Automatic annotation (TrEMBL):
Function: Involved in transport from the ER to the Golgi apparatus as well as in intra-Golgi transport. It belongs to a super-family of proteins called t-SNAREs or soluble NSF (N-ethylmaleimide-sensitive factor) attachment protein receptor. May play a protective role against hydrogen peroxide induced cytotoxicity under glutathione depleted conditions in neuronal cells by regulating the intracellular ROS levels via inhibition of p38 MAPK (MAPK11, MAPK12, MAPK13 and MAPK14). Participates in docking and fusion stage of ER to cis-Golgi transport.
Phylogenetic lineage: Eukaryota, Metazoa, Chordata, Craniata, Vertebrata
Organism: Colius striatus
Cellular compartment(s): Golgi apparatus membrane
Designated name of the protein: Golgi SNAP receptor complex member 1
Record bears the keyword Transmembrane: yes
Length: 233
């Protein structure tokens, strides 16, 4: 009966102990996410609570171990031979429970100590980083200025390359247009060379038309004069 009572009490204590370790880790993670300058280990109350609960659980484990030893002495006594098998089974069950609780306690305690050690290490590293940043602020500003100037130079180079590519494309277009103008000029020269022959032909035709008109007019005039002379005589 005492063993069952201690086991129930140990079970509740171990659950609370595990929750304490989980809340310790989540609290540290929340502080790390919220701010880089917040101290990681400013909740010493959790550390004191951890130490107190660990001592209390160790005392309960010690009491349960003592009761298991007394039950083992009782089963080995000469006055209970008929109930020896059943008592050995009960004793083995309580020993297994004690072993499980002891293993769980040491595992949770080791996890808590590992988390605390990691947080202490991260806290010291963050402090070193902050001190380095505060001590090298001027260098950081100069580095930022150099990086900005370098970025400006890269942008200028990119703009120059784009301008050169546009100029090359314009040059190619002008070259192609010059070729087209040359071909048009050659065609115009060809047409100009052909036009004089056409003009001379047209002039000849006009001269013949005028000569024919003069001849026809002269014939008509002579015939008219002859008719008038014939009419008056």
């Amino acid at each position: 009966k005492q063993a069952r009572q201690l086991e129930n009490e140990l079970d509740l204590k171990l659950v609370s102990f595990s929750k304490l370790c989980t809340s310790y880790s989540s609290t540290r993670d929340g502080r790390r996410d919220s701010s880089d300058t917040t101290p990681l280990l400013n909740g010493s109350s959790q550390d004191r609570m951890f130490e107190a609960m660990a001592v209390e659980i160790e005392q309960l484990l010690g009491k349960l171990t003592g009761i298991n030893d007394k039950m083992a002495e009782y089963t080995n006594s000469a006055g209970v031979p008929s109930l020896n098998a059943a008592l050995m089974h009960t004793l083995q069950r309580h020993r297994d429970i004690l072993q499980d609780y002891t293993h769980e306690f040491h595992k949770t305690k080791a996890n808590f100590l590992a988390i605390r050690e990691r947080e202490n290490l991260l806290g010291s590293v963050r402090k070193d980083i902050e001190s380095y940043k505060s001590g090298s602020g001027v260098n950081n500003r100069r580095t930022e200025l150099f990086l900005k100037e370098h970025e400006h130079l890269r942008n200028s180079d990119r703009l120059i390359e784009e301008t050169i590519s546009i100029a090359m494309a314009t040059k190619e277009n002008m070259t192609s247009q010059r070729g087209m103008l040359k071909s048009i000029q050659s065609k115009m020269n060809t047409l100009a060379n052909r036009f004089p022959a056409v003009n001379s032909l047209i002039q000849r035709i006009n001269l013949r038309k005028r000569r024919d008109s003069f001849i026809l007019g002269g014939i008509i005039g002579i015939c008219t004069i002859l008719l008038l002379l014939y009419a008056f005589h």
